[in-house]
Structures are given as structure tokens and as C-alpha cells.
Amino acid sequence: MIFNEQSAKIIAQFLLQIKAIKLETHKPFTWASGLRSPIYCDNRLILSYPDIRNHVVYDLSKEIEQSSGLPDAIIGVATGAIGIGALVASELGVPFAYVRPKPKSHGRENQVEGHIEEYAKVVVIEDLISTGKSSLEAVDTINKSINVKVKAIAAIFDYGFEETRKRFEEQEMDYYSLSDYDNLIDQAYQTNYLAQSDLEPLRSWRKDPKNWIKKFNHGIKN
């Protein structure tokens, strides 16, 4: 679910402008999971562009406060959301911590780094939501590590998979993003980043990413 339709279009334009998101229907990317995909997203690049970074931080802060109320703290998911999460916490004037995918193998072996008061109401920041599995695992880790209430997950970008929506619904966890796949494709086409012939394979990928490569393998480079 996106926070705001107009903001979603602007953020999509920014992500394309700085090449945080790349679209390739004829030479798909391979994700860490092995999935072949026509889209690659690296929102960490936002941190390198001050004007865009400030815009993203302002929009996330404003929308979090409007949707969930002012949280007591922000928790970023390592590593992609540590930078943006800390800046959002600063904008809102609340404490910040971050959650690791695995505990440290030395020292105190923490998985949640930072200090947040007990019973605090927190919002978790993600740079990207794909299947939602890692996001919900982060929430589970937070709940097991510290005694707080996670109100919602807020992200910069969401692929908008149906399985993701169902997964969050089953866990009764609210989630939002500044922009999403539909707005990205629309903006990419309107700004001539994409040809009309690219639209069908891109939209089909989102519907069935696991089998997409079998249907659109003609002309694809390995």
C-alpha cells in the first residue's frame, strides 16, 4: 500500500533518475534467491544525492506520522535501511536502533543495536519490500529481543506482490511504501525510459515472477 499517489510518482521518477532502479526486459537480473527478474533495486544510492535524500526522508517522516502517529522510536532493517532510518528518526526527533538479519558472532551478540525504552511504539523502516518475508522476520526478531510494540513497516519501494499483501495480512501487520511497482512502470513509460513493447513483460513478471522467464525467454540474453 502506498502512502500517497502523487508522492509515489515523484519518488518513482527520482529512483529512475539516479538509477537506484534499473529495468531490463531483455537481459534480466539474477537475485540472490536465483530468481530472474527484469528489475533491480538499490535504494542505498539515495543517500548519495542530498536533494533526493532529503525529499525521501521528509516524505517518509510526514507519512509515518500521519498514518501511524508519532512513534516513540524508529528501527531500521540492516543494512539497506540503516542510513534512511536514522535520518527519519532525526527528522521526527525520536530514538533510533537497527536490527540485524543475524546476531553478531562476537561481543554481546546483539541482533538489535541501540537503546529503546520498554513498551515503546516503533515503526520499522525498510528500503525495499519484496516478498515481505525478511521484513516480517525482522519484526519477529525485534519482538523477541526487546519489549516494544511494532506499529507498522514503512518502506521506500514495494514490488506489490499479491503474496506479500497476504503475508502481511496473515500477520496483521500494517505496511506502507512511498512508491511501488505500478507507479514505477507508469513513470518509466511516460518519460520514455521504456518502450511500449516492454510493458507487457514487466507487468507479467509481477503477476508470476517464478515462471516469467519461461514465458518471455525469446531474445533474452544470459
CATH architecture: 3-Layer(aba) Sandwich
Mean pLDDT level: 92
- Largest β-sheet summary: 6 strands, mixed
- The ordered string of helix (H) and strand (E) elements is HEEEEHEHEEEHEHEHHH
Query: What fold name goes in the CATH topology slot?
Result: Rossmann fold
| Oligomer class | single chain
How helical, in percent, are the residues?
A: 40-55%
Rg, nearest Å: 18 Å
Q: Describe the global form.
A: globular
What is the name of the CATH class?
Alpha Beta
The amount of beta strand, in percent, is 15-25%
Instruction: Compute the number of helices.
Output: 8
Q: How are the strands of the largest sheet arranged?
A: 7-6-5-8-9-10
Low-confidence stretches: none
Ends: how far apart?
Answer: 34 Å
Keywords:
41% helix, single chain, 8 helices, Rossmann fold, alpha/beta, 222 residues
Tell me what the structure shows.
- The chain is an alpha/beta fold and 222 residues long.
- It has a single domain (5-215), classed as Rossmann fold, CATH 3.40.50.
- It is built from eight helices and ten strands.
- It has helices at 5-17, 50-68, 82-92, 133-145, 162-170, 181-190, 196-207, 212-215; strands at 21-23, 29-30, 36-37, 39-41, 73-77, 96-99, 112-113, 121-129, 149-158, 174-180.
- A six-stranded mixed sheet has the order 7-6-5-8-9-10, sandwiched between helices. The protein has a two-stranded antiparallel ribbon with strand order 1-4. Strands 2-3 form a two-stranded antiparallel sheet.
- Helix 1 (5-17) crosses helix 6 (181-190) and helix 2 packs across helix 3 (82-92).
- The model has no long low-confidence stretch (mean pLDDT 92).
